[in-house]
C-alpha cells in the first residue's frame, strides 16, 4: 500500500443529485483527497423498477474500483445513502486481527479496504431491514409513497426541509435538482442490507438545525448504534439536512479528521 490518502467515496441521500457534493468535493480535493461521488440509480434513472440492489451495486462498483487498485477507501454517506453505503461495503472492510472484513467475501492483502464511514444526518443500517422497516413500516410526514407511479414523493416545502439555511435562490435551485426516488429502493431489498458500520469505526455529523431528520432523531440513531456495539465518534454542525452545501469547509474538516484517525488506527 502507498502512503496516499484513502479515496473518499461519497454517497448522496434519497432524491439528492450527485452535484450536491460539489462544494464539499472542491474543498476536499484542495486538501489532496481523491473523491468519487456515486449517482444512485434509484433517484437518477426515473424508472420505478429501479431497486435498492441497483443502488448497492453502484456504490460497490465505485468502492471496488479503488480497492482493486490497492487504494483504501472511506465511505461518506448522507441520509438514505447510509443504507447502500454500508451494505455495499460488506466483505470489503479492513480485516480485524488478520481475519476477514465484514463477514463476507474478504479481500486479500494486495487490495485496499474500507477503513471507516463518515455519516451526514443519516442512519445506521440494520442487517436484513429496509429503510421503511427501520421506520416501522410507514414513511415520515415529509414524504409519501405514490402507489400509482411507483415513486416516493416529497410533501410540503422541500426547500425548508432540506436547504433552509441556504440563500433562497440557491435552495430553490437544489429543489429543482431533486430526482424521483423509487418506492422499491425504500421498502424492498432487506435481504441485501448489511451493517458494515459494526466492522469498522464511524464518525457521525449531527446536523443540529435539520428539519427533515431532527437532531434528536439523529442522536437516537447514534445511541442505538453504540448500544448495538458500533464505534461512533460524534461531531455537530448547526446546519440543515445538507451540511455539505451550507457548511462545506467545516464538513470537510470533520471528514479529514475522521480519515486521519482511521489511517492511524490501521497503522
UniProtKB/TrEMBL annotation:
<keyword id="KW-0378">Hydrolase</keyword>
<dbReference type="Pfam" id="PF12697">
    <property type="entry name" value="Abhydrolase_6"/>
</dbReference>
<dbReference type="InterPro" id="IPR052897">
    <property type="entry name" value="Sec-Metab_Biosynth_Hydrolase"/>
</dbReference>
<dbReference type="GO" id="GO:0016787">
    <property type="term" value="F:hydrolase activity"/>
</dbReference>
<feature type="compositionally biased region" description="Gly residues">
    <location>
        <begin position="96"/>
        <end position="105"/>
    </location>
</feature>
<dbReference type="InterPro" id="IPR000073">
    <property type="entry name" value="AB_hydrolase_1"/>
</dbReference>
<dbReference type="InterPro" id="IPR029058">
    <property type="entry name" value="AB_hydrolase_fold"/>
</dbReference>
<protein>
    <submittedName>
        <fullName>Alpha/beta hydrolase fold-1</fullName>
    </submittedName>
</protein>
<feature type="domain" description="AB hydrolase-1">
    <location>
        <begin position="8"/>
        <end position="253"/>
    </location>
</feature>
<feature type="region of interest" description="Disordered">
    <location>
        <begin position="88"/>
        <end position="108"/>
    </location>
</feature>
Amino acid at each position: 500500500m502507498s502512503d496516499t490518502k484513502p479515496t473518499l467515496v461519497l454517497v448522496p441521500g434519497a432524491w439528492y443529485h450527485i452535484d450536491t457534493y460539489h462544494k464539499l468535493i472542491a474543498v476536499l480535493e484542495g486538501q489532496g483527497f481523491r473523491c468519487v461521488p456515486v449517482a444512485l440509480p434509484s433517484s437518477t434513472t426515473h424508472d420505478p423498477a429501479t431497486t435498492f440492489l441497483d443502488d448497492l451495486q453502484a456504490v460497490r462498483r465505485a468502492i471496488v474500483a479503488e480497492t482493486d487498485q490497492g487504494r483504501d477507501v472511506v465511505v461518506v454517506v448522507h441520509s438514505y445513502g447510509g443504507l447502500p453505503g454500508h451494505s455495499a461495503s460488506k466483505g470489503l472492510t479492513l480485516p480485524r486481527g488478520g481475519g476477514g472484513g465484514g463477514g463476507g467475501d474478504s479481500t486479500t492483502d494486495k487490495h485496499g479496504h474500507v477503513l471507516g464511514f463518515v455519516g451526514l444526518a443519516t442512519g445506521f443500517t440494520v442487517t436484513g431491514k429496509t429503510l421503511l422497516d427501520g421506520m416501522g413500516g410507514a414513511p415520515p410526514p415529509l414524504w409519501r409513497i405514490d402507489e400509482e407511479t411507483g415513486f416516493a414523493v416529497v410533501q410540503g416545502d422541500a426547500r425548508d426541509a432540506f436547504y433552509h439555511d441556504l440563500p433562497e435562490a440557491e435552495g430553490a435551485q437544489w429543489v429543482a435538482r431533486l430526482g424521483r426516488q423509487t418506492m422499491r429502493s425504500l421498502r424492498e431489498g432487506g435481504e441485501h442490507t448489511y451493517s458494515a458500520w459494526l466492522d469498522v469505526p464511524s464518525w457521525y455529523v449531527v446536523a443540529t438545525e435539520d428539519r427533515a431528520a431532527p437532531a434528536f432523531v439523529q442522536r437516537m440513531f447514534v445511541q442505538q448504534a453504540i448500544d448495538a456495539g458500533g464505534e461512533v465518534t460524534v461531531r455537530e454542525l448547526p446546519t440543515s439536512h445538507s451540511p455539505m452545501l451550507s457548511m462545506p469547509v467545516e464538513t470537510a474538516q470533520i471528514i479529514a479528521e475522521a480519515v486521519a484517525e482511521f489511517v492511524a488506527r490501521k497503522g
